Amino acid sequence: xxxxxxxxxxxxxESFDKNRHFHYSILVFAGGIILTFLLWDAYLNNNSQIEKSxxxxxxxxxxxxxxxxxxxxxxxLESRQGFMEREVHKRTVELENKNQELQxxxxxxxxxxxIISHDLxxxxxxxxxxxxxxxxELGAALQGANLDYFNRIVTNAKNMTVLxxxxxxxxxxxxxxxxxxxxxxxxxxxxxxxxxxPEIEKKKIQVKNAGRFPALLGTKKRLHQxxxxxxxxxxxxxxxxxxxxxxxxxxxNGSFYEFQVRDNGVGIPQEAQSKVFQIFQRFHPGMGIEGTxxxxxxxxxxxxxxxxxxxxxxxxxxxxTFFVTWPKGRNG
Amino acid sequence: xxxxxxxxxxxxxxxxxxKGLASDGAEVIYxxxxxxxxGFLEKEKQPENLPVLVMLDLKLPGMDGFEIxxxxxxxxxxxxxPVVMLTTSKYKQEINRAYELGASGFVTKSEDFSELxxxxxxxxxxxxxxxxxxxxGG
Lengths: 332, 138
Hints:
The structure holds 2 protein chains of 2 kinds.
Chain A: H1 2-18, H2 20-46, H3 49-138, H4 144-172, E1 181-184, H5 185-195, H6 197-202, E2 206-210, E3 215-218, H7 220-236, E4 245-253, E5 256-263, H8 295-305, E6 309-315, E7 319-327
Parallel strand pairs in A: 2-4
Antiparallel strand pairs in A: 1-3, 4-5, 5-7, 6-7
Chain B: E1 2-7, H1 11-21, E2 26-31, H2 34-41, E3 53-57, H3 65-73, E4 83-87, H4 92-100, E5 105-108, H5 113-130
Parallel strand pairs in B: 1-2, 1-3, 3-4, 4-5
Helix pairs in contact in B: 1-5, 2-3
């Protein structure tokens, strides 16, 4: 009953909105006519008979013409405004539909990645399984060039396994998530640096913390992935500067925290900078560093899924700084 | 000799998994789909002919692992047989659903073959040693 009443009200409002230009112009016209009559009446009461006979029809005619012109002016204004509003509404609906279409397409692609990653994993289990049996069976008979060919098969199968795992992880971000919680970034960075410690020490890198870090609202797994990728990349691509340094920092920026991971490493080549967050992009093939080129795409996806953003500044031979913004959340 | 049923549609995986399960005391019987395995499990009247362990692939064409598991658990003759699920993924929702339906365990098919062999050996040893063998009252 109440719904029927509400829908009736809505229909009435819509009908009024549609004919608004008509209603408003009639109002203006009627107002003009009333004003003319009032003026005319005042004029009749205050002037001589001759003046009245000449001027009063003129007042009436002018007043009526003015009212019609004002009515028509309002009509055209309102019609134009109504047209514009309808256009804006139409475009908004079109945009919303396109947006929804895009989101559905994205979901489809992610599901597709998820499915093919699983399907491609099955033959890899077989390849590596039989390779392992073959190696055990052949033992010392597998040697020289044959051993080299065999090892290349195994290495490629392993690389593909890592690639698929990364691809699967990429498809999981935003789709399969744990409950958000407060994650202490001081201990998270400590953990990450601890995990990278062997390489940090080998390359004699100095890791500096520029102050304390806040707690973030998110999942520990995803925040770990974001900063492990960024700090890990800094370690991987530190190159050979005079005093290799990675600086971790954070500052407040309105309703966001902005984290910085700065290094004085090899930097990102200028021509590659527009592709940094694209999946499967690698920029230093000559350095012999392992990787699939999925890491930074995962970083971007995690950060954006959580309402933040990621960008970088880099100069070859000088270093790279990644900036990650993350919403402060309700408890700031 | 203890029987282990392996329900797996991928013949390569079946061969690899059989290598990890077969031993002097255990015979692996391979079924490429759920229908043929259930055809035996649901009709067999002699409890001693029933397997002591079922290794069941989660993704099978036609009747999938969940459905087969459900059928095994709802049949009075074979509902007590441990069923260990085989999967290529560690998809939490799938794992939870299988446990809810009565799965006894999970083995992820690792690409690292020695790791897979180790997992299969542990699972087999555990269930063959600790689980009550089917008897006339089973």
